[in-house]
Amino acid sequence: MIDKVEKRMKEILDQDKTGHDFPHSKRVFNLGMRIAEKEGGDKEIIGVSCLVHDAYRPFETKELTHTSDYALFFIQKRVLEYIGYPIEKIPAILEIVKYHEDYPFGVTGNRMKSPEGLIVQDADRLDAMGAIGIARCIKFTAAKGGEIYDPTVPLKPSKKYNPDIPNPSAIHHFPDKLLNLKKYMNTAEGKRLAEHRHDYMVAYLREFFAEWDGKL
Known about the structure:
Helices cover 54% and strands 0% of the residues. It is mainly α. It has one domain: Hypothetical protein af1432, CATH 1.10.3210. Helix 3 packs across helix 6 (115-126) and helix 6 packs parallel to helix 9 (188-212). The longest helix is centred in the last third of the chain and has 25 residues, at 188-212. The radius of gyration is 17 Å and the shape is globular. The termini are far apart. The model has no long low-confidence stretch (mean pLDDT 97).
């Protein structure tokens, strides 16, 4: 069944240009399986949720986000039921998709309840960190018409992060979200894996501003 989900998601996410493509979903899947080895949980629910969590990204609009009710309907009908996934397992996956973008430092807090969902959140957050996370951040910002960095806007985090409001630039996304992720990982294994990726981002920003200011 995982193979069927992967095949379907390749078809859907082939249209994505924002860094939420199939390679992202596959990396999140691999990270989810890695965390589940240490933390437990239903691996099938974790794996399928990791693969489908961004299924609506290529069609997302300001009104219909990738966690909206219509996005969940799309995942149920055009992905899971489409491939014959067991009906009784679908609600658990949809709940994880609905809340996977919740953050303790965000406007909604973290409404995720299931241990499987907490693992999926950690896996998704890990792929937003480190070297790949930096590349994805810049790609996403460029796809939305944003700049690498806008020095005219103060570089400080929002009081409450809102994933539906774009940052002024890719670099502004670091204090607003990316640098907060390590502190708020859900699982012990997620926290462990986040350490190096967080340190890499801190080092990258140090290098970025040294070059930007002409010190290197």
